[in-house]
Specification:
The chain is of the alpha/beta class. The chain has four helices and five strands. A hairpin with a 5-residue loop joins strand 1 and strand 2.
Length: 141
């Protein structure tokens, strides 16, 4: 089974950087579950990284529940966040750095390959659009 996890974040710059994340878990092309979370004040890059972390955390739980998962793919429309998650970028933000260390740990704990894929934002990808809407709604809560 292949699991694609779409993650997104929304940061309200006009409302003290209140942020939210959205995560959509798809198994074999079908929505398995979706969820969002309000983060409070956060910069947009950190919020995107938290979304990736939340998606990977859920992937780890799914892998514990079944040994049928052959691939976990994190799909995100924020290329800088994906670069950081893959170890290809650098951040001076200490909180972001700590989350990136946790992402590395999670990737090592997931018993199948983990891929990171950029998806174009607002381009009709229904799963990415759901993640975007969840992030926006949770930024307002």
């Amino acid at each position: 089974m292949k699991v694609n996890i779409y993650t997104d974040a929304s940061t309200l710059l006009h409302k003290d950087n209140l942020s939210g994340i959205g995560v959509v878990v798809c198994i074999e092309g079908q929505v398995h579950e979706s969820f969002g979370k309000h983060l409070g004040a956060s910069d947009s890059a950190t919020a995107e990284i938290v979304g990736i972390y939340a998606g990977l955390s859920r992937a780890k739980e799914l892998c514990k529940a079944t040994d049928e998962i052959t691939l976990v793919r994190i799909c995100c429309d924020c290329k800088p966040a994906l670069d950081l998650a893959c170890g290809e970028g650098v951040t001076q933000n200490k909180s972001t750095h700590m989350i990136l260390e946790r992402i590395d740990e999670l990737c090592m704990q997931i018993p199948c390959p983990v891929e990171f894929q950029w998806v174009k934002a607002h381009n009709g990808n229904k799963f990415n659009e759901i993640a975007d809407q969840l992030a926006y709604e949770h930024a307002h809560n």
